[in-house]
Recover the amino acids of this structure.
């Protein structure tokens, strides 16, 4: 497998970001990103300006954050080819994105207010919708900015943001586990930077939080359309994990399920009655937690966790480290699901 690192959910001056798109792209290049997904509010301005495609070693993908009036129901629409009207009902966003050949993710589903910055909460409330590919399990800016800081704490948080990071909301992870237990196909979880470039610079945030995508073959580096489709297809399939690379680089992580001679990856569904070996390997020692349906089934300190089971469920990995004496979230994989039935795989 080939691993590529990138940032999803980024704003420029085409909506409410602090820098023009070309400067944001330069920040992505300086941060050594393999790909950058720009999602301005109700705008495909970066695409219309001809900025999609390869910029040096960084592939720029342009979508939009569908942002309706009011304080709820933001939706990330990627690779649609055209603008999706924000005036339609939120339940219609996902079908519209699908109809335009794109993929869609619910943005910051359990968003909370940011009292120090005087920003309201923008959660997702239209849960009767269907057809979306997944949702942000972790919105990094909401995590970092939602504390009820005093001025001194806010200044320190700008200087040492990792001291304040808590990780994905528990309610979001619980919903993700529950929905994936019942879904026909797994819902992918992404980490959204929600970068705006105010105080917390783009380049710094791009180095701190990333999505790591696995592909079966390398990107061409020449055909931006083909390469964009490869990245987005893998994201929609759940072939990725999110990481706080600002703590330690997470490249090289693996999470697999082995049944007989066949190895399965995040995003796969196995139907079987035999035993399966789940294995997680890390590039650096940390605290590895394996969960089934949201409940911890195994823990291991170090670089490797192995767990053998025949119990059906949704299995995923969370990894935590320590930073300045406190536990810090590091890695969140997408799940592998084990169902009952004769052993085969949805690969």
């Amino acid at each position: 497998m080939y691993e590529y690192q990138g940032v999803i959910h980024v704003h420029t001056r085409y909506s409410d970001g602090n820098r023009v798109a070309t400067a944001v792209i330069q920040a992505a290049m300086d941060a050594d990103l393999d790909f950058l997904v720009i999602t301005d509010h109700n705008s495909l301005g970066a695409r219309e300006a001809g900025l999609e495609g390869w910029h040096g070693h960084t592939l720029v993908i342009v979508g939009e954050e569908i942002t309706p009036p009011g304080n709820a129901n933001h939706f990330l629409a990627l690779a649609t080819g055209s603008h999706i009207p924000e005036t339609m009902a939120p339940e219609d966003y996902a079908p519209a994105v699908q109809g335009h050949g794109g993929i869609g993710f619910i943005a910051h589903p359990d968003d909370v207010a940011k009292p120090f910055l005087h920003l309201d909460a923008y959660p997702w409330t239209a849960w009767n919708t269907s057809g979306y590919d997944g949702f942000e399990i972790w919105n990094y800016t909401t995590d970092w900015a939602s504390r009820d800081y005093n001025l001194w704490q806010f200044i320190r948080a700008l200087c040492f943001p990792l001291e304040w990071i808590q990780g994905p909301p528990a309610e979001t992870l619980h919903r993700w586990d529950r929905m994936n237990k019942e879904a026909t196909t797994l819902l992918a979880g992404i980490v959204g930077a929600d970068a705006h470039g105010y105080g917390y610079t783009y380049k710094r945030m791009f180095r701190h939080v990333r999505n790591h995508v696995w592909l079966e073959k390398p990107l061409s580096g020449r055909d931006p359309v083909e390469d964009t489709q490869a990245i987005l297809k893998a994201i929609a399939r759940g072939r990725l994990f999110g990481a706080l690379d600002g703590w330690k680089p997470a490249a090289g992580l693996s999470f697999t399920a082995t049944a007989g001679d066949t190895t399965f990856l995040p995003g796969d569904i196995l139907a079987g009655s035999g035993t399966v070996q789940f294995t997680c390997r890390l590039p650096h020692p940390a605290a590895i937690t394996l969960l089934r349906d949201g409940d911890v089934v195994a823990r291991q300190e170090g670089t490797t966790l192995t767990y053998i089971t025949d119990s059906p469920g949704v299995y995923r990995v969370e990894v935590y480290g320590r930073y300045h004496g406190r536990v810090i979230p590091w890695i969140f994989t997408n799940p592998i699901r084990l169902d009952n039935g004769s052993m085969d795989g949805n690969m």
Remarks:
- Residues 2-246 form a domain with the TIM Barrel fold (CATH 3.20.20.140).
- The first strand starts at residue 2 and ends at 10.
